Amino acid sequence: MNATARPPTPGQLDPVESTYEPRLGETVEDTEHRRIGKVMGFEGPYVQLRPIEGGREWDATPEKLRPVPVAEALSPLIDAANRRSRGAL
To answer: Residue 87 in 3-state DSSP?
Structure first.
């Protein structure tokens, strides 16, 4: 490691040491589109994702995906449920 390089912070992958490979059913963030989704399948060079709250699938490049902790993945769902319970939706 050179003097200017920093080790990866916890939760980050070192691109030199390993490459993240999403698995079917896993919840990930598409950092290119800034969306969280569940891995639904693989088509050619793309990973097919669906929003965790349901909806239309989209294609993402595997290099732009990162695993998402459960709490982070559930946060948008909890927010939506709270808005519904208050009659905001």
So the answer is: coil
Q: How far apart are CA 23 and CA 70, in angstroms?
A: 15
Distance of alpha carbon 19 from alpha carbon 57, whole angstroms: 24
Tell me the pTM.
0.65
Strands 65-67 and 27-30 come out as antiparallel
What CA–CA distances, in Å, run from 86 to 1, 29, 46, 81, 89? 53, 28, 39, 9, 8
38, 26 Cβ separation under 8 angstroms: yes
What would the pLDDT profile of 37-72 be if each residue is shown by its tens digit? 999 999 999 999 999 878 999 999 999 999 998 778
